[in-house]
Amino acid sequence: MNAPLGTLDRPNSYIGRSVSRPNAKRLLAGRGRYVTDLVLPRMLHATFLRSPYAHARIVSVDLGAARAMPGVRLVATGAELAKLCTPWTGTLDHFKGMKSAPQLPLPVEEVLWSGQAVIAVVAETRAQAEDAAEAIIVAFEELPPVVEIDQAREPDADRAALAVADNLCFHSRLDTGSIDEVFAGAAHIVEEEFLFGRHTAVTLEPRAIIAHWDASEGKLTVHHATQTPYQFQDLYSRHYGIPEASVRVIAPDIGGSFGMKLHVYPEDMAVVGLSMLCGRPVKFVADRIESFVSDIHARDHRVRARMALDGKGTILAVDVDDVTAIGAFSTYPRTSAVEGNQVIRLIGAPYRFRDYRAELSVVFQNKVQTSQYRAVGHPIACTVTERLVDLAAAKAGLDPIAMREKNLIADDAYPCDSPTGYKFEALSHQASLKKLKALMDYDALRAEQAALRRRGIHRGIGIASFVEISNPSPAFYGIGGARISAQDGAIITVTPSGEVRCLISVTEQGQGTETIIGQVVADQLGVPRERVRVMTGDTETTPHGGATWACRGAGIGGETALQASRKLRGNVLLVAATILQAKADELDMREGVIVDAPTGAERISLAEVARIAYFRSDTLPPGVSAQLSVAHHYAPQGYPFAFTNGVQGCHVELDTQTGFVRILKHWVVEDCGRIINPLLVDEQVRGGVVQGLGAAFFEECRYDENGQLTNGSLADYLVPMACEMPDIVVGHIETPTADTELGAKGCGEAGTAAASAAALNAVNDAMSPFGASIAQIPMTPARLLRALGAI
Amino acid sequence: MSAHLPLTLSVNGEEVSRLVEPRETLADFLRRDLSLTGTHTGCEMGVCGACLVMLDGLPTHACLVFAVQAQGASVETVEGLTQSAAIADLQRAFHERNALQCGFCTPGMLVTAQGLLSRKALPSREEIRDALSGNYCRCTGYEAIVDAIEMVARRRAAGETATSFVEEPA
Amino acid sequence: MKARAFSYVRPATLAEAFDAFAAAGGEASYIAGGQSLVPALALRLQAPECLVDIADIAELRGISQEGEWLRLGALTRHVEAHDDPLIAACAPLLALAAPHVAHPAIRNRGTLGGSVALADPASEFPAMMLAMDAEMEIAGPAGRRRVPATEFFQDLYQTAIEPGELLVALHIPLARPEHRCDFDELARRRGDYAIVGCGVMLALPQEVVSEARIAFLSVGPTPVRARAAEAALTGNRLDGDATRRAQAALSEDLDPAEDEQVPAAMRLHLARVLLGRLLGRIAGAA
Predict the structure, then answer these.
(1) What is the CATH number of domain A378-469+642-787?
(2) CA nearest A714 in C: which residue?
């Protein structure tokens, strides 16, 4: 099932094998080391008094009682922290005209959302800190909150943040030019208004950080549950004025991230300053209630879209208006505009049409900031596209599969570009759809659906093709002035005993980064996998790199490891050739033994080479100096992004009396290029699908008219749980990218990208006998009963 | 008014005595006072299942019990269940099937699985999913966890016994 | 999310418990399983000065048949309602509702007495006390009394239990051979508080309903007996007509509040759907 290996075709290749994760054993034994677990000597605990209002001015604070409470070591205001930390602004230069209010660790005058941290309390225990926080008295003067997107966009609207002139953060327009003419001449037009609920990541381990400022050596050490330790090393250094080399950020085991833990949070920046003020390590772990009001949220879009077709059902053009509300300021350093930007650029991406127009408005409101969360923008773009395609299919009298067969970009049409400017190297929409149809036994499902409908059982089948962005180049952030690296670095060493240590800049959050890097290193170096130890997540020891986000770990990190391993293998073979008085290019290393390349005859073990190199260099000829460590960096330079693709199918049963939906089964065929570890890819896809199904049916941050989050607890915000989730069938097509030797692309967001679209189409399919439809997620029973006219 | 109280209980087969504040939960007591950090807290209100331990042999939320309430009780955490090899087969199956990613939910999942299989030897997939209804996992999508538990149920029914998990090669 | 400080005592008898409560000047809470109380303390929604742990009071334990009644000590755990053969035989509605109560680990520690005393209108067991015509035995410094379920649930989280008193036991009339019962609920996810739930207990000596008790949860500030629906069934054959009349009668019984997520009309609609399905199941099995 794997793609031809070509230059990767090594004896006993680890690439393409379902091996289990060595580091998972520790987690299974309860020996993970998460930031929440860590205790440092003399460590204090921080908590924050939070704003009860969505928008208010701080009139006065009375900290006397809190400071006198047992165990309290510090109560600090925004003004005190502002003396230590410079402000930040979440804009990117390539988003022209973007604006946002500057931010500080804690507000000095104006609070912008309900739940914003206002005053910090540091005490010997978290409980004591909470006791003291209750004793703080803050007088707020309420300001009018901006809550709804239309309210925010009114000409004389109240401002969500007084520091910016109006509530428009960013506006963008794409236009290929002749949209109005195409629509005027279209045989069919379908249109819809889509609503996407706000949701949030809900990692099981909340955000956690321990900052330790050691004034004696001028060094800041931060244990930080983040995907991107290098980014935070840079930020702590620049905003606190500490030399970069004196800032160490360690990201140990992390209890889930999904994009949520790579943004700057005010509390995290504050904790660094609190440690400086206390001269002791300070720990902050957001409790679940704090998580809901301070972790980034995502989505929250209203999209009006229409599609033009010719008489035969060929898609001609798409016209889109997307409005998204992001909170009162744009998130730093990646901004809150990337999601909308990706929505308008990904809409229609799997299809052949050439005429496109899109308008994006990113607006401020008084809610917690939104930003990048798994599959940024993809679920919205995919849902809009795929629902329009289904509506179009109905108009044209085509089956949804036939409609897609007709309109998907042909597998032999690459390279090509999208009307929105994305460049596609090689995708496999047609092959993926064909495979999905077979996996689902689509025709049998349709026959069963028809038979069951006659008995009053209403099942629905939904299909959604998708494109996913992976392996981003500097075109993503670097070009906009953000100090976010698109390259990765690795240092690989053969130890004196002939074992291998790989320090690499991509990071691990459970997806299996360390495992696949170990597979690549073992494979390309030629050693048993058990002999390779991969270490990640410590800026003091691992080279600077982009780390893990946007599905770049396998593609960019993997290629970095591949190139570094090959370099090291060359070095090992040079030393071995010297020892053996052979030619290096006639030797190979396999399973830790240097062999004659043509015959496979064993010549000398790696351990022996290492012993000689480290301890008996006197026996090597003059001028020979063994280089058993290699430092290597790799940055993608071909296509700006390595796009992946796939298609999903969802099968549901709708209880038309209750509005409850049972998800019967879900299928995914995806193409992430070279698969390094099928077991891990499948589980990434399944986990991703469930996050998409959560969004489709359950998850939504609900706010009242005053900007108060009304379901901010794990009992009230409904995450997908085991009973309601289906078994998920995963299939693969492999189209490696030719930009790298490894050929790997990302897979972590594919599941989330299209699951909600497939689910929405499935529910609409189930409702079609009633002439009912829905274009809003989550699809709650109330919304479905309303759509059905039952209430 | 909140003087520390003496507390004696059995944790992972060892008698433990400490002075504790009444407001300290069993979860915080295990994590903070005993450094048993395999018990995780994800919500502190009994809905995520990350803090499940065996309390007198039954899966229980350690965040919904104050440590003082466990006076005289017997507590087993993932560390103890690992050491006794009681869940070695579950751990092995989770490992083989990659039924964990970030691992934060995993100790609670293991405790639930152990509790389920002690009540019902060969549960259906639906019954496994039902038993997991209070265990939140954001990473896996649950299917691999259901698979792993199903696999262990079959292996146990076939009479396979567990040996220590942690000493096996990775 | 850490509770405010409190003191803690664990009396061995009811008398000691009452004394401990009184000693705290009324600023005390009894704790049994704690599965609802501990989150409320962690969220600082409640902050008693003293917790009186009743776990060691032997009198509060035990499942026994006493004449025509099943006596469940207040500390009987949810898991026992789920598993205990005597409960399954004598109070089958309780056993049918138990799997819907939260999740396995909560059921391992949560107590029936705690659930009934809290009287959360969205909880299964309080509503089942209504459906089973149970009586609550309450003890306090002034003595003890038995209160029928119909008088026990007074308002949102308010019951006949006075401050300082304790729910000692639940007394449930034994189900008779002619009784048919069923329970179901509509919850977004397994174990969530239901949007609406319903327990039905019918006496069907022949083909005609001689007695009907129907109780709903999650439809108002207290669990609710659906008297009009019961009347629509009583004396009639359990057929489609009677079912439709009972469903229609629910508009007299239920007056759910408006809620953005679950509009009142939706809750009433779902209550009717649920009742129809339960009656259909009973009729189908009869």
Answers:
(1) 3.30.365.10
(2) C192
